[in-house]
Design a protein that fits this description.
Layout lengths: L4 E5 L4 H14 L4 E6 L11 E3 L5 H8 L9 H29 L3 E5 L3 H9 L4 E5 L24 H24 L1 H6 L19 E4 L15 E3 L23 E5 L5 H17 L4 E5 L10 E2 L2 E4 L4 H4 L5 E4 L3 H10 L3 E3 L6 H10 L3 E3 L6 H9 L2 H15 L3 H10 L2
Parallel strand pairs: 1-2, 1-4, 2-3, 4-5, 5-6, 6-7, 8-9, 8-12, 9-11, 12-13, 13-14
Antiparallel strand pairs: 10-11
């Protein structure tokens, strides 16, 4: 069949939305593409756009930014899931109406919007899932995710511990499924796991892992799980370019992405102190979105609302970041070494992979950043590994791979 109409569905958060926008920009060469997200996402979208959950945008952001670290805290995870499920009934009703009216040929949805896929299947529409952080996928072996960045097991004790942690994850998800069984049933969700033990939040037809296997630990995946490569899409913006000194000093970018507002103020204060002691380095701190308060430019420390990774990242000697999937892949593509300081969610697992493959060093906390950064800047072997990995990374274009898969339908 020829795929003529495709819906792309994602939350408004850049790490989830931007890869789908990049896929959509490529797919529009062969298909009629429409993006569905909350109204705030429209500003960054250059494709036909339809808003969803228009009355709940603040609630959507509140789920992603609870104001404190969630990590693997079961109570905070429960609260997030409860808030999420509260919105799913409205979203399911909206999507059912749109699918019935427009009947797309394919729905590609971010893994955080599984009800989009469930609704699509009920309308007889194929559903594919995008997954920007392959490390969070629940596999039957290998290091489990969300436990502080587990490394591959080397001893019997480590293998036993990993098995226990995997079972704990499985049990927690099943418990949440039982606790919310009425709500999930009301929106047509079949339960946390299907009969074949696969997770219902992922498509049973195709899971598009937007990353490269060369930085993943050995694990087993189902046949419909495919590494297609990352999608480094950055929407056009008019933010002013940062100033780069031409006096030979290295420039360092500091970013915690678009989330984590509770952590940014403390990190900015730490970096001001480091900049005062390290006059031979120029520091650019980006808040990831427009700030309400004033920005400060003091000597070699510059604050910015936003620094475009696509336009400016190649000019940095190193990046201090939270190991989010977006900045992680941009650094890999440009061969830039990193200091990683994970804060929450999948970031600890991403950081573990970067460090294990010699592409970054992890700071144990803000107090450890300065020493770690100096080590990274002075490590020529790490820089060489990053440059070599950039060649591997550039060979795997996620948007191009998805276009080929769609064309083959």
């Amino acid at each position: 069949m020829s795929c003529k109409k495709i819906f792309l569905i994602a939350p408004p958060f850049s790490g989830h939305l931007h890869p789908l926008l990049g896929i959509g920009m490529r797919l529009r060469e062969i298909a009629d593409v429409t993006v569905l997200s909350t109204p705030g996402a429209a500003a960054s979208c250059e494709l036909p756009f339809q808003s969803i959950l228009a009355q709940h945008e603040k609630a959507v952001w509140a789920i992603a930014e609870p104001g404190k670290e969630v990590k693997s805290n079961p109570l905070l995870l429960y609260r997030q899931l409860k808030a999420n499920i509260a919105l799913m009934g409205d979203l399911t009703a909206e999507l059912d109406a749109r699918f019935a009216a427009e009947q797309p040929d394919l729905v590609i949805a971010d893994f955080t919007v599984p009800v989009a896929g469930i609704s699509a299947l009920q309308h007889g529409i194929p559903w594919w899932t995008t997954l920007a952080s392959p490390c969070v996928f629940e596999a039957p072996d290998g290091p489990p995710a969300y436990f502080g960045g587990q490394l591959p097991a080397q001893t019997t004790w480590q293998r036993v511990r990993h098995a226990v942690l995997r079972q704990a994850t499985h049990a927690f998800k099943r418990a949440m499924g039982l606790l919310f069984r009425r709500e999930l049933s009301a929106i047509g969700f079949p339960g946390i796991y299907r009969a074949d033990r696969s997770e219902a939040v992922y498509s049973p037809q195709r899971i598009l892992a937007l990353g490269i296997p060369e930085i993943e630990f050995p694990r087993s995946y189902p046949a419909h799980f495919e590494f297609v490569g990352s999608v480094l899409h950055t929407p056009h913006d008019d933010s002013p370019a940062p100033e780069f000194a031409d006096d030979g000093r290295p420039h360092v970018l500091i970013t915690l992405g678009t989330h984590l507002p509770h952590a940014k103020a403390a990190l900015a204060e730490t970096m001001r102190g480091i900049a005062a002691r390290q006059a031979g380095i120029v520091f650019h701190f980006t808040h990831g979105r427009v700030m309400e308060g004033p920005l400060r430019h003091e000597g070699n420390f510059h604050e910015h609302d936003h620094v475009s990774y696509a336009r400016h990242l190649p000019r940095y000697a190193a990046v201090i970041h939270h190991a989010g999937a977006g900045i992680l892949n941009h650094c890999l593509r440009h061969g830039i070494p990193s200091v990683v300081i994970p804060q929450d969610y999948d970031q600890f697992d991403n950081a573990a992979r970067l460090v294990a493959f010699g592409l970054a060093l992890r700071a144990k906390g803000n107090a450890d950043i300065e020493e770690t950064l100096l080590r990274v800047l002075g490590d020529a072997e790490m820089k060489a590994r990053c440059v070599a990995m950039s060649t591997v990374h550039a060979r795997q274009d996620g948007a191009e791979a998805v276009m080929r898969l769609v064309a083959a339908l």
